[in-house]
Here is the input.
Amino acid sequence: MPSRETVEAFVAMVESNQHDLAIEHFYTEDASMQENLTEPPRRGRDTLVAHERAVLARAKTVRTECIRPVLIDGDTVVVHWVFHFEFKDGSRRRIEELAHQTWQGEKVWRERFYYDPAQMKTNLA
Here is the structure.
């Protein structure tokens, strides 16, 4: 079960747009992430970090905010995120999602994201 302090440190790192470093620091070696239920889970912290870096490499700027409260119940944590992306191709996206996490001790073990896929296609520019 994660401490509130650990979860808040994780949120702070993501909000400072150190998404890849947050994965390196706060996820188990065998962690997995899954987008909605449409794709199979990505597995392994190194794979998760590489995927995150590839997404960030396409972005010119990213602004991340956590919509409070962060819900913590035992090993389950739910975070409401809003991401504002400006990509290098000039497109812009606002992605709102819920991240449902299962923690093992002080690290994320499983994570599933819930969001409307239509957000990925809507250019705000």
Q: What stands out?
A: Strands lie at 27-35, 42-43, 59-73, 76-87, 92-104, 107-114. The longest helix spans residues 45-58. Helices lie at 4-15, 19-26, 45-58.
